[in-house]
Amino acid sequence: MPRPLGELEDAVMTRVWQWNRPVTVREVLEDLQQERSIAYTTVMTVLDNLHQKGWVRREVEGRAYRYTAVSTRAAYSAALMNEAWGQSDNPAAALVAFFGMMSPEQREALNDAIRIAQRDTPEPAAAPAAAETAEGGGGSAESGR
Length: 145
Fold this sequence. Notes:
- By secondary structure, the chain is mainly alpha-helical.
- It has helices at residues 7-19, 25-32, 40-52, 73-86, 91-101, 104-120, 128-134, 140-143; strands at residues 56-61, 64-69.
- Helix 1 (7-19) packs across helix 3 (40-52) and helix 2 packs across helix 3.
């Protein structure tokens, strides 16, 4: 389970996820500077830490690195939710409480996700005995001549 991102790590990863392409420290810095005063070395350190933690991979381009997200924001969020749910001593009650906090739009998104998950889940294979019964008793009709 990934450790939750810190506030600055999240701000950096948000850009990497939104842009969905390899990014440089300079690009992230310039975007972050629209919201806050921050140094180049701070962004460089955060991206290096994210690389060390496995959140981004990097490739050398000239004298700089380009960073790319290893997974999606959705996968990160899902891992956090799974970890929180797994820590409950009563997972069903935790889900009921969680659903109670959801907006109607979030509940609709949940219903959509459940429909997709059910559609994408393969049907379990029939047991051999059940398959024989479905095909006419395993050939017993042949032996009844």
